[in-house]
């Protein structure tokens, strides 16, 4: 498969240099909400620390600096790197080191963009064997190696399981203590969960790796358990990420707390039981994960700045639309239902936008957006974080295009209830398989929205079809996909299982024993 040409002509390389004046030392923790990121900041002694959190992918990256020397390291950078450049400039720090915990599958890491702008060295894992090596220039890391950033040091811990090359970083702030204070675990240990070892097999198609990865994870956890209980745990993901099945909603934890509350540490020496539980009921990995694995491992062209896509005239939009460019309508599902362009796909511009775009868009094709002017930058960032850069342009008002609009057929709980036992109606649950098995409407068939386009043969063209999900977002996507593919006998129960359960509707739970709260 050839790498896609994703990068617009107006993208420019802009080199940035920052002074390294010593910053004022403060012990006051801060929580800052920038336009596109949630950031936790604090200073201890001469160490500066910021956790940059992207809610759209539930992905955390880290900016750590030594204020005495002005040096800083970034761990697991997202691709829109301006946040790190701003942090460096505002705190008189130079980004001198860049590293990653592993070859990521869920986002396009911005390490190379950041290195191109700052001139910083990249320090990346050389663990895992020949098939798991980064294929571009870097300084290799092995278990036990040290990265020194001014008066700080980060010890490399090889922690395979999620992936063979996975590493963690044990941080020591030497002016304060010679004991470690933080561990950056990547997708190894999360708050309340651990990284899944099945992604290489399910998403990247590398057969026979999930059981071996699960056993590696069991051994890696012994290394984690040996760390002091007080060490803070800062993972690469939080709740909502597809990199685990039960991630906690708080950003960080401690080694001691995880040993007590994290399910993965409750199996003692029962490796078989641990492996079985770890591999059971993992959510479907988004389709785009395979592309991320490839782009994060191999050399690629860089996108240094956030693109600015053009707002199209009526004529420009219609010309592209009539040539077959896919239209992604990012409006609220209720607005979409009231009037949408034929063939358009409704992926709402919320925190799940990039995930569903990754499920449904082809990296080789250009596409059009329907989005408000004040939302286009946020959507652009969400797309570029997973490498979807082929946006042709956008419009903000479907009513100005001059084409007839279609409307969705929505039904309420009463009509849904009346049709459940109708033999001429097909009820389709478009949620994930684990959700379906934990409880669904009696008689419903399961077709996951992420793979719906490949399973259209499972949808009846003769019967009336009623679809539902949990609360209407995914069924809105499914409805638009079905209409795009010529299904006209579709109705959407947009209240979904959430409303159905609140109304005490009957639910079948064939796999209730394994369902997680």
Explain what you see.
- The chain has helices spanning 82-90, 111-118, 199-202, 210-225, 255-261, 271-279, 289-297, 314-322, 333-338, 353-360, 376-384, 413-419, 433-438, 473-484, 496-502; strands at residues 30-33, 38-44, 47-54, 59-66, 71-75, 94-99, 121-125, 139-141, 146-149, 152-158, 167-173, 182-186, 232-235, 253-254, 326-329, 340-341, 345-346, 367-370, 391-395, 405-406, 410-411, 425-429, 445-446, 464-468, 490-493.
- It has 517 residues and is α/β, with parallel strands linked by helices.
- It has an 8-stranded mixed β-sheet, covered by helices on one side. A 6-stranded mixed β-sheet has the order 9-10-11-12-13-14. A 5-stranded parallel β-sheet has the order 21-25-24-22-23.
- Helix 4 crosses helix 6 (271-279).
- The relative contact order is 0.10.
What's the short version?
The protein has 517 residues and is of the alpha/beta class. 24% of the residues lie in helices and 22% in strands.
Number of helical elements: 15
Counted beta strands: 25
Low-confidence stretches: 1-34
State the shape: globular
Q: Main β-sheet: number of strands, strand sense, barrel status?
A: 8 strands, mixed
| Rg estimate, integer Å | 24 Å
How much helix is in the residues?
A: 10-25%
Can you list the strand order of the major beta sheet? 1-2-3-4-5-6-7-8
Distance between the amino and carboxyl termini: 40 Å
Strand content: 15-25%
Q: Which class of secondary structure composition applies to the elements?
A: alpha/beta
Taking all residues together, what is the mean pLDDT? 90
Please specify the SSE layout and strand pairing.
Blueprint: E1 30-33, E2 38-44, E3 47-54, E4 59-66, E5 71-75, H1 82-90, E6 94-99, H2 111-118, E7 121-125, E8 139-141, E9 146-149, E10 152-158, E11 167-173, E12 182-186, H3 199-202, H4 210-225, E13 232-235, E14 253-254, H5 255-261, H6 271-279, H7 289-297, H8 314-322, E15 326-329, H9 333-338, E16 340-341, E17 345-346, H10 353-360, E18 367-370, H11 376-384, E19 391-395, E20 405-406, E21 410-411, H12 413-419, E22 425-429, H13 433-438, E23 445-446, E24 464-468, H14 473-484, E25 490-493, H15 496-502
Parallel strand pairs: 5-6, 6-7, 7-8, 12-13, 15-17, 15-18, 18-19, 21-25, 22-23, 22-24, 24-25
Antiparallel strand pairs: 1-2, 2-3, 3-4, 4-5, 9-10, 10-11, 11-12, 13-14, 16-20
Helix pairs in contact: 4-6
């Amino acid at each position: 498969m050839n790498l896609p040409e994703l990068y617009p002509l107006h993208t420019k390389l802009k080199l940035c240099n920052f002074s390294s004046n010593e910053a004022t030392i403060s012990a006051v923790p801060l929580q800052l909400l920038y336009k596109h990121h949630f950031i936790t900041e604090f200073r201890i002694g001469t160490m500066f620390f910021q956790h940059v959190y992207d809610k759209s992918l539930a992905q955390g990256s880290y900016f750590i600096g030594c204020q005495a020397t002005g040096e800083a390291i970034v761990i697991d950078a997202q691709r829109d790197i301006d946040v790190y450049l701003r942090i460096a400039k505002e705190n008189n720090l130079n980004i001198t080191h860049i590293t990653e915990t592993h070859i990521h599958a869920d986002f396009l890491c911005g390490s190379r963009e950041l290195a191109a702008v700052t001139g910083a060295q990249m320090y990346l894992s050389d663990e895992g064997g020949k098939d798991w090596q980064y294929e571009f220039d870097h300084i290799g890391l092995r278990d036990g190696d040290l990265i020194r950033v001014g008066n700080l040091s980060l010890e490399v811990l090889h922690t395979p399981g999620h992936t063979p090359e996975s590493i963690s970083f044990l941080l020591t702030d030497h002016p304060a203590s010679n004991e470690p204070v933080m561990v950056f675990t990547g997708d190894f240990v999360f708050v309340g969960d651990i990284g899944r070892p099945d992604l290489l097999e399910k998403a990247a198609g590398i057969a026979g790796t999930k059981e071996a990865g699960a056993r590696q994870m069991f051994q890696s956890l012994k290394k984690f358990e040996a760390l002091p209980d007080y060490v803070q745990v800062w993972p690469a993901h939080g709740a909502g990420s597809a990199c685990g099945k039960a991630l906690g909603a708080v950003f960080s934890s401690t080694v001691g707390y995880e040993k007590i509350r994290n399910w993965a540490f409750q199996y003692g020496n029962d490796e078989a039981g641990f492996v079985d539980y770890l591999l059971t009921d993992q959510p479907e990995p988004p389709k785009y994960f395979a592309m991320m694995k490839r782009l994060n491992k191999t050399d690629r062209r860089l996108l240094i700045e956030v693109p600015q896509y053009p707002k199209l005239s009526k004529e420009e939009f219609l010309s592209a639309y009539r040539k077959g460019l896919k239209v992604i309508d990012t409006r609220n599902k209720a607005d979409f239902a009231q009037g949408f362009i034929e063939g358009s796909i409704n992926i709402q511009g919320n925190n799940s936008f990039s995930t569903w775009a990754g499920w449904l868009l082809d990296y080789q094709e250009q596409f059009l957006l329907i989005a408000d002017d004040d939302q286009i930058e946020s959507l652009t960032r969400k797309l570029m974080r997973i490498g979807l850069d082929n946006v042709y342009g956008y419009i903000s008002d479907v009513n100005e295009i001059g084409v007839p609009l279609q409307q969705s057929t929505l039904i309420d709980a009463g009509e849904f209830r009346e049709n459940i036992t109708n033999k001429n109606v097909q009820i389709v649950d478009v949620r994930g398989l684990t959700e379906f098995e934990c409880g669904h409407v009696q008689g419903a068939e399961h077709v996951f929205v992420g793979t719906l386009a490949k399973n259209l043969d499972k949808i009846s063209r003769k019967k009336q079809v009623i679809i539902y999900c949990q609360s209407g977002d995914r069924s809105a996507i499914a409805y638009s996909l079905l209409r795009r593919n010529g299904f006209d006998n579709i109705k959407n129960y947009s209240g979904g299982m959430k409303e159905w359960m609140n109304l005490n509707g009957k639910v079948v739970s064939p796999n209730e024993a394994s369902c997680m709260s």
